[in-house]
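User: Could you write out the 3D structure of this protein bound to glycinamide ribonucleotide? I've included everything you need below.
Assistant: Certainly. Input first, then the structure.
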Amino acid sequence: MGEIRIGALVSGGGTNLQAIIDACEGGRINGRMVFVGSDNPGAHGLARGEKHNIPTFVVDYKDIARRYDEGAEGLVPENFNVNEILKKQTLFSVSEDPARLTRFFDIRAAAEGALIRAMNPYPFDLLVLAGFMRTLSPYFIDKTNPAPLDPRIMNIHPALLPAFPGTDGYGDTYRYGCRVGGCTVHFVDYGEDSGAIIGQKAYEITPEDTIETIKEKGIKLEWELYVDCIRLFAEGKLKMTRKTYALQKGRKVQRTVVEIV
Ligand code: GAR
């Protein structure tokens, strides 16, 4: 594979984004950042992109939700079918209030349709979520990554998945009383932080640690891990493999995992 084109989505400070930009510019990743997008107009990650002359854009999710609730017309894309998405999604239980689910996925599709339009001028090989604090719905994933066995959306999560998915990986790890914490880079599927794992790094948690010190330990590992995983992707070394494992009593479990080849 030659130089890969990387798009990034951020919601906040963008220190992972910075690590990736620096690794591209320093030749540690054979890649080039082609856009930085955000759901949050105030994300400092946008300024980091601008500083490196990378095109940036914002799709303001909060504003879209507000306009939807005010009854604005034409927000939800015409090719969006909420029933199709409700069948595919794994973020919510089926017992959830259908009206609430429809509102959630309508708003997601409105925002994600706008994201897709904003990304359109910048073709990419890999989309990295670098502190992007919104789940991506099947509407976005199917359009952006139509072949699940050829994944091209990556996320970094501040916990050792599958423990502590969600929005506060460090806090959840700390409050649980874990002796070890860590971070995970994975491909994105329909679930919340549930896609195939590419890499993990771990740190020790001692009785002296606080939430602040574990964040300090963890974020430094995140920067290294994300760059390592993107480098493997750029080198064509990540392969999805379907594995079948035999369990007791003749039962079997199947999993799709990432093999490093
Ligand atoms: C990082 O800790 C990242 O793992 C986390 O947000 C932070 C962003 O920091 N992401 C998630 O929690 C996603 N569920 P950054 O903006 O400085 O890269």
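The radius of gyration is 19 Å.
User: Perfect, thank you.
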